[in-house]
């Protein structure tokens, strides 16, 4: 999982990059992006959120999710807006701030998410699906670099499958045929993603990827795990 992050931490940061969420809604979103066999329990969700919060990548307060606000384009501007929203919430009467916990990503968490996305191990099939899901957080050049590494990994696997020793029986032969067909199809899919990304990069009207940042619910000093 790249540099310093579990699959669940990766998925949490990616989902929270889209906006603030209560724990129950956050679990539902995670179930929609993680593989079906890696369902998240609340017993693993909240300890992971706690680690991210201690690292300064996630904040949690009691209240309701704040609508997503446009990204300023500069880290200093994001941090200033982040702190302003914290002061605004702190000024509310205690009864207005009381309720379920709301989780939001911090500027430090966004930096860590990009680091996880760009340091992805191309052989990690589970993490790659998350990279595609959260690739909107990367620049075009970063997406191309990650996709190119993945394609090279898949091509090496395909070559290995095609040059392996003959199968001992028809069952193992059928598995090899299936593996070759699967790898060929995934390479074609990655090629389509790469072609679209490169075409968009050559367009004279192309602008940087439009990121949005959730109005986070607290302040942070940043940190790493």
Any chance you could write out the topology, listing elements then pairs?
Elements: H1 7-16, E1 21-22, H2 23-33, H3 42-54, E2 58-62, E3 69-70, H4 75-90, H5 94-97, E4 101-105, H6 107-118, H7 125-133, H8 140-163, H9 170-202, E5 212-213
Outline the structure in words.
The protein is mainly alpha-helical and 225 residues long. The protein has 2 domains: 115 residues, Orthogonal Bundle (Arc Repressor Mutant, subunit A); 64 residues. It has 9 helices and 5 strands, in the order H-E-H-H-E-E-H-H-E-H-H-H-H-E. It has a 3-stranded antiparallel sheet. It has a two-stranded antiparallel ribbon with strand order 3-5. Helix 1 crosses helix 2 and helix 8 runs antiparallel to helix 9. The C terminus is likely disordered.
The class by helix and strand makeup works out as mainly alpha
Name of the top-level CATH class of the largest domain: Mainly Alpha
Strand arrangement across the biggest beta sheet: 1-4-2
Helix-strand pattern, N to C? HEHHEEHHEHHHHE
Mean pLDDT: 80
Using the 3D structure, state the CATH architecture of the largest domain.
Orthogonal Bundle
Name the assembly state: single chain
Largest sheet, in brief, is: 3 strands, antiparallel
Shape: globular
The total count of helices amounts to 9
Structural domain count: 2
Work out the radius of gyration: 21 Å
Extended strand count: 5
